[in-house]
Amino acid sequence: MYQIGGTLALQAEGIRTTLIFCTSGNARPITSPELAMCENLGEIREREQGAAMARLGVAQSTDVRFLPTPDYYLPDVTFEELVDEIEMVLREVRPHVIVTFGPDGLTSHHDRIRTGAAGTEAFHGARSAVRPLTVPSSVSTTRP
User: Fold this and answer.
1) Which pLDDT band holds residue 135 (cuts at 50, 70, 90)?
2) What is the domain range of residue 50?
3) Degrees (nearest 5) of the Cα angle 124, 110, 56?
4) Do residues 90 and 128 lie in contact, with contact meaning Cβ atoms separated by under 8 Å?
5) Total structural domains in the chain?
6) Is 96 helix (H, G, I), strand (E, B) or coil?
7) What residues contact 85, with CB distance under 8 A and at least 6 apart?
């Protein structure tokens, strides 16, 4: 959400958005043990995403999907399985634009690198399977 939050806020009334999170962010570290435990960290991080969307004013115009894949261990999930899960959502919602992580994962984190690669592959799969083309563009985010 942090990489496109401002853009979503500016367009909150004009577009319907679907966010796909490949994990719930349930891996450690837990910086405040009084706020979360390993058992509920994913649930808390999902609520944090909801609170961020509410704060930006986009909660009502945004559909959020958390995939059931393990945080920090995303590279252990087969690439094809991850692509299929993302592509299934893309075929359902038929977006006009897709934003994902670029080859560096924005922060060089291996989960984000895997997410960007799978998102890009899912984009190409969804695009080639739909006629007429309803997924005209893909945008990757990278740091200069």
Assistant:
1) low
2) 5-141
3) 75
4) no
5) 1
6) coil
7) 67, 69
